[in-house]
Amino acid sequence: MALLLTAASALLSPPLPPSRAGSPRASATHDLLRADMDAAVAARGALERRLLGTPRPLGPPPGLGFSSARGKAEAAELRRAGVVRLDGVLTPDCADELAAFVDAERERAEAEVSAGVPRQSRFEDLVLVSRRCDLLLPLRGAAVRALDQLLGRNSRLAPLFREVMGERGVLNELACLFSEPGAAQQPLHPDTPYQKTPPLYAVFVALQDVSVDMGPTFYLPETHTKEAHEAFYGGSLEAGRRLCGEGTLKSNTPVNEEFLRGRVVQHALLKKGDCAVYNQCVLHCGSANLSPHVRRQFYISMYNPKVQVRAKRSMRPAFRNKLTLKDISAELKALKGATSRPGGAFELLDAADRAEADSYLS
Ligand SMILES: O=C(O)CCC(=O)C(=O)O
């Protein structure tokens, strides 16, 4: 997920090169700077944690069940709160298959990077990198099966996306977050600056049951608004625009203690296959993983092509700006439950991704 507001990002100007590039000494310097930056970022996260009250579980809103017609109730809640929980968007079997798939892909991606594929083609930077990983996924196998359950014919998410941004919404991210034992709490952040028309929505899907000590995502509902962004950024939306997204990440802005003390905070104690859908302007963060377990969170996001979008994206280069919701629905329909077909949209994109990697390896 996008790299955003951090306390110590000023330490990293210009951005650090990929750690595997260059000499062992450059790599050691990179690792030292990264560790310093993470320590400062974690300190901000810890301060915010002390200011926030006890989290309440993010639950499906009352009255919202499988009977919800064509995503309307979910969309209404998403518009109101900036985040909505939907249970059972993946079957447990599909979530298990995907968990094994992402683990194998992570190893494969590390091997590819060691062999010369640019790190940014396989991994994205996260807020607080230490003990976290943001893996960009290929468009095949279990990833396609998961897309079918998330956005296929009888899904609940496709109607929700149609409601909030229409068929022309574009797939912006396809990735998996790993939070490992010992991962510290991230600072709160939106993924993109405030805009009147929401530019981006993300879906975080749990690939295992998430307990409190595994560091669930925290959401601050109703913070996708202009007023909340102004307060969070010390009275200035302009500061939010500068600090959020891909810009230089300087954060000498003080934490707005009063604002945080008064907020409701919800944690996403999702069961395997459940998800949280959020407007990416809403404030959120990964909390600390104090458990001995890895938390895997598969995710996709969609952007609204009618508005200007500013955020980094966790998606392999070959897939960027290529698939609208309409295209995805059509391809899933043509696949009829399979994960690839000759000449199909996903297969062609996957081939382009492989060709990109091969161009570095040959
Ligand atoms: O770890 C999580 O659940 C949230 C991660 C996140 O928001 C981010 O990395 O930007």
3D structure, described in words:
The chain has 362 residues and is α+β, with helices and mostly antiparallel strands. Helix content is 35%, strand content 15%. The strands form two sheets. It has a seven-stranded antiparallel sheet with strand order 2-9-6-11-5-4-3, covered by helices on one side. A four-stranded mixed sheet has the order 1-8-7-10, with no helix packed on it. The longest helix has 28 residues. The chain starts with 23 loop residues before the first helix and ends with a helix. The structure holds 2-oxoglutaric acid.
Keyword list:
362 residues; alpha+beta; 7-stranded antiparallel sheet; 4-stranded mixed sheet; 10 helices; 35% helix; binds 2-oxoglutaric acid; Fungal_Metabolite_Diox
Major β-sheet profile: 7 strands, antiparallel
Ligand inventory reads:
2-oxoglutaric acid
Q: What is the percent of helical residues?
A: 25-40%
Low-confidence stretches are 2-22, 246-250
Beta-strand proportion: 5-15%
The value of Rg in angstroms is 19 Å
How many H/I helices?
A: 10
Cα separation of the termini: 30 Å
Mean pLDDT: 88
Shape: globular
The sequence of SSEs as H and E is: HEHEHEEHHEEEHHHEEEEHH
InterPro entries: Fungal_Metabolite_Diox, Phytyl_CoA_dOase-like
Organism: Prymnesium parvum (Toxic golden alga)
Protein name: Phytanoyl-CoA dioxygenase
Keywords: Signal
